[in-house]
Amino acid sequence: MLIMREQRIHLRVSQDEYDLIRQKMAQSGCVNMSAYLRKMAIDGLIVKLDMSEMKEILRLLQYNGNNINQIAKRLNEGKSIYALDIADIKNKQAEYLQKNKTRNIHPTKIRIASHNG
To answer: What angle do CA 80, 85, 89 make, to 5 degrees?
Structure first.
């Protein structure tokens, strides 16, 4: 749904203040100055989720899923599966579990940008 924003707010800042606003905006991951200032003025904070570790886990799970699907297809066609296929899946599963243990991964890491910095 498109929100019509008809009111304008004009704001003057010093160069140092402008640089600080840009720096905090970059830290938040926001690329639109109006959206950043509106969000900070209304809510006082921006929540940015760091999903990089989750993307790696998803990649490993997709890799395993693809291998399992290929094995299931072979079995459904009456063909054999190979010990190497099973070993590959076990290795990727072990890699996935090891990454979870060593990184102490939580579903998300949250970084909050507040008025106080």
So the answer is: 140
pLDDT, one tens digit per residue, over 46-90 is 677 778 778 888 888 888 888 888 888 888 888 877 778 788 878
Q: In whole angstroms, what is the distance from residue 12 CA to residue 32 CA?
A: 18
| pTM (predicted TM-score) | 0.42
Euclidean distance between CA atoms 27 and 43, whole angstroms: 17
CA distance 93 to 60: 8
Beta carbons within 8 Å of 69's beta carbon, 6+ residues apart: none
One-letter amino acid identity for 59? Answer: R
Altogether, the residues listed in the chain come to a count of: 117
Q: Which residue has the tokens 């090891």?
A: 98
